[in-house]
Amino acid sequence: MMELAPLVWGLLAVAALIAGLGKTAVPGAATVSVVLLASVLPARTSTAAMLLLFMVGDVFALIAYRRHAHWPTLLRLAPAVVVGLLAGFLFLMVAGDATVRRAIGVILLLMIAVTLWRRRHTDEKPAGPLLGLSYGGLAGFTTMVANAGGPVMSMYFLATRTPVQVFLGTSAWFFAIVNAMKVPFLAGLGLFTPQVLLMDLVLAPLVVVGALAGIALAKRMPQQLFDRIVIGFTVLGAVYLLF
């Protein structure tokens, strides 16, 4: 691990900062962290390393927004998410890295298109069961194979026109629970090596810095700007994964 080039360490540091920021202020920005780690580390190694860094950010997201969660939404999504996690685990065992990235890129772009169409053609919250099943299953699948469930859930919350604080609170609990569930799966694949643990130990303080900065930023962010930032980061991450 210590043989990594200074430029690589710089990119890892930026990824850690953005991971913290994405957890507490800009959902979707965390996709940038996933992209950066996947560009400088082997795909499976980056998945394990990113998961542990995200879990550090989850702690601060819960501290800041735990009271704003909408639990009926979480319970409605839970069955589909579990199915998606299992499907993602099986897919991760058999699919190559390029296939995984492109599949997720296509899924994210489709979610963006559907979300923008729904927001343009209806003023009501689309709270039907099919919406929760589709987004929940895709979130479970994408978060298992590439820690990319954040953009899918962002699209779900934007589709349901969820206010900023409820968005962040529900996301905080969702990913804290889901990420904890993923640990035994990735451990079973032997991905938490001593090198990964040491690297994350070095990067974890930067996640904390990013998370604290995000808490301060979220209090000053208008809803419209928040929505646009989420969509923008999601598009960038999806395009990178696709191409």
TrEMBL record:
GO terms for cellular component: plasma membrane. It is found in: Cell membrane. The chain crosses the membrane at residues 47-65, 77-94, 100-117, 164-185, 197-218. The keyword Acyltransferase does not apply. Keywords: Cell membrane, Membrane, Transmembrane, Transmembrane helix, Transport. It is a multi-pass membrane protein. Coiled coil: none annotated. InterPro entries: TM_pro_TauE-like (IPR002781), TSUP (IPR052017). Its main location: membrane. Pfam families: TauE. PANTHER family: MEMBRANE TRANSPORTER PROTEIN YDHB-RELATED, TRANSMEMBRANE PROTEIN YFCA. Belongs to the 4-toluene sulfonate uptake permease (TSUP) (TC 2.A.102) family. This is Probable membrane transporter protein.
